[in-house]
Amino acid sequence: MARIVYLTNASLDGYIEDADGRFDWSSPSDDLHAFYNDLLRPVGTLLYGRRLYETMAVWETDPDLIGENAITAEFAALWQAADKVVWSRTLDAPLTARTRLERAFDPDAVRALAAGADRDLAIGGAELAAHAFRAGLVDEVQLVLHPVVVGGGKRALPDGVRAHLALLDQRTFPGGHVYVRYAVRH
Description:
Blueprint (H helix, E strand, L loop, with lengths): L3 E8 L3 E4 L11 H11 L2 E7 H7 L1 H4 L1 H4 L3 H12 L1 E5 L11 E4 L4 H9 L4 E5 L1 H9 L5 E7 L6 E3 L8 E9 L5 E8 L1
Parallel strand pairs: 1-6, 1-7, 3-4, 3-6, 4-5
Antiparallel strand pairs: 2-8, 7-10, 9-10
Helix pairs in contact: 1-5
């Protein structure tokens, strides 16, 4: 059975975007971006909410971004090779290949997807991740903490959810970024 991993960027005060919906403070250096490539390598399926999916679709639809350098080209190739499942009530059709739409979050269907997968699933998007946390589906939490305090916005971790975690890994990067990886104790 594959793991379901919640992987996201967060400000030091725990937000994935600020109160204005901006996340420009999370642009990675080349070293950090290469590390993201390493994190994406074992992932076979990306689980997204609509907004994050639309943001990430540029890794297939924007040739300028894809060809920026070897690191971004590799990330684009890894992203494109993964299957994508997008939960949206408003998106009419997928914007990218290897993508299917779901209208309502069904924990049992996600559990079955993980049970039948031979590669990990990565969940992205705070709202979708909150559903997965509440359903007890998240096996690992991987956060890249950015050295910025944004004072409010969209929280990286859901309110109203209690989880006990065990530290599996940590790493620091030049510029003050910190990666932490936790197992969720079920």
